[in-house]
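As agreed, record minuted below.
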Amino acid sequence: MFADFLKKLTAPEPEQLPDSDARLALTALLVRVARSDGSYDLTERQRIARIAETRYGLSPDDATALRSDAEELEAQAPDTVRFTRAIKDAVAYEDRIAVIEALWQVVLADGRREAEEDSLLRLVANLLGITDRDSAMARQRVDPAG
């Protein structure tokens, strides 16, 4: 189902993605980070759907459908390095900063910062072209106490 989308996303010189495709790719990245610690629980799934609802102005049903599609895409997507670099090349910088904030929301959804999630988030931020400082500021916007 997502083979053509992934081919387009990982092309040598991908074009800027239309909004709906960028939403799907970024939501799949949220799923990948949520799954990185080996646990993908209801809290994380609900958080991803709420992020999609809020960020993209979707109804709860549409947000859940987007998350479901993103789960399928994430399962078929190439390794994190190629997948994230492809997103960097195809998604505007402002949207990448916003996704770092959303990624922090997902990482912190269960109330714990797991080493695997922290490590993957640092890698993802770097691959998206986001500095450690900008990522830390995004985390502080999401969790001022942390």
